[in-house]
């Protein structure tokens, strides 16, 4: 119990020390710190401006392939243990993704202009 109290006291003291050091070193914000970064140029539009609708389609396609990789990494770890069935399941998963890409391509989602 005494060890727990000592550790808790050290954690509280460390947190208070870090907080106090941060507060003591603060000065007012500098104009360059609060300005948006745009390679030194002035911004021409508002930061919360609307995006063109075609960006949403590209974003959804990116997320689909990003999720593909999120599923493939753990699969690659266990594929040797699971055998041919795991390979067949991954080919099925990739086939569904390929069908989605072909559909998006056919509908013109990948056409930029």
From TrEMBL:
<dbReference type="GO" id="GO:0048038">
    <property type="term" value="F:quinone binding"/>
</dbReference>
<dbReference type="InterPro" id="IPR000440">
    <property type="entry name" value="NADH_UbQ/plastoQ_OxRdtase_su3"/>
</dbReference>
<keyword id="KW-1133">Transmembrane helix</keyword>
<keyword id="KW-1003">Cell membrane</keyword>
<dbReference type="GO" id="GO:0008137">
    <property type="term" value="F:NADH dehydrogenase (ubiquinone) activity"/>
</dbReference>
<keyword id="KW-0813">Transport</keyword>
<comment type="similarity">
    <text>Belongs to the complex I subunit 3 family.</text>
</comment>
<keyword id="KW-1278">Translocase</keyword>
<keyword id="KW-0520">NAD</keyword>
<feature type="transmembrane region" description="Helical">
    <location>
        <begin position="82"/>
        <end position="105"/>
    </location>
</feature>
<keyword id="KW-0472">Membrane</keyword>
<protein>
    <recommendedName>
        <fullName>NADH-quinone oxidoreductase subunit</fullName>
        <ecNumber>7.1.1.-</ecNumber>
    </recommendedName>
</protein>
<feature type="signal peptide">
    <location>
        <begin position="1"/>
        <end position="20"/>
    </location>
</feature>
<comment type="function">
    <text>NDH-1 shuttles electrons from NADH, via FMN and iron-sulfur (Fe-S) centers, to quinones in the respiratory chain.</text>
</comment>
<dbReference type="InterPro" id="IPR038430">
    <property type="entry name" value="NDAH_ubi_oxred_su3_sf"/>
</dbReference>
<keyword id="KW-0874">Quinone</keyword>
<keyword id="KW-0812">Transmembrane</keyword>
<feature type="transmembrane region" description="Helical">
    <location>
        <begin position="55"/>
        <end position="75"/>
    </location>
</feature>
<keyword id="KW-0732">Signal</keyword>
<dbReference type="GO" id="GO:0005886">
    <property type="term" value="C:plasma membrane"/>
</dbReference>
<dbReference type="Pfam" id="PF00507">
    <property type="entry name" value="Oxidored_q4"/>
</dbReference>
<dbReference type="GO" id="GO:0030964">
    <property type="term" value="C:NADH dehydrogenase complex"/>
</dbReference>
């Amino acid at each position: 119990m005494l060890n727990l109290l000592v550790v808790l006291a050290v954690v509280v003291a460390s947190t208070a020390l870090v907080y106090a050091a941060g507060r003591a070193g603060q000065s007012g914000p500098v104009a360059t710190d609060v300005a948006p970064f745009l390679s030194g140029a002035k911004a021409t539009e508002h930061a919360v401006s609307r995006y063109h609708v075609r960006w949403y389609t590209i974003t959804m396609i990116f997320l689909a392939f990003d999720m593909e990789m999120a599923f493939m990494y753990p699969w690659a770890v266990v594929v040797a243990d699971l055998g041919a069935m795991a390979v067949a399941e991954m080919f099925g998963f990739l086939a569904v993704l390929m069908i989605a890409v072909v559909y998006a391509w056919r509908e013109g989602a990948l056409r930029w202009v």
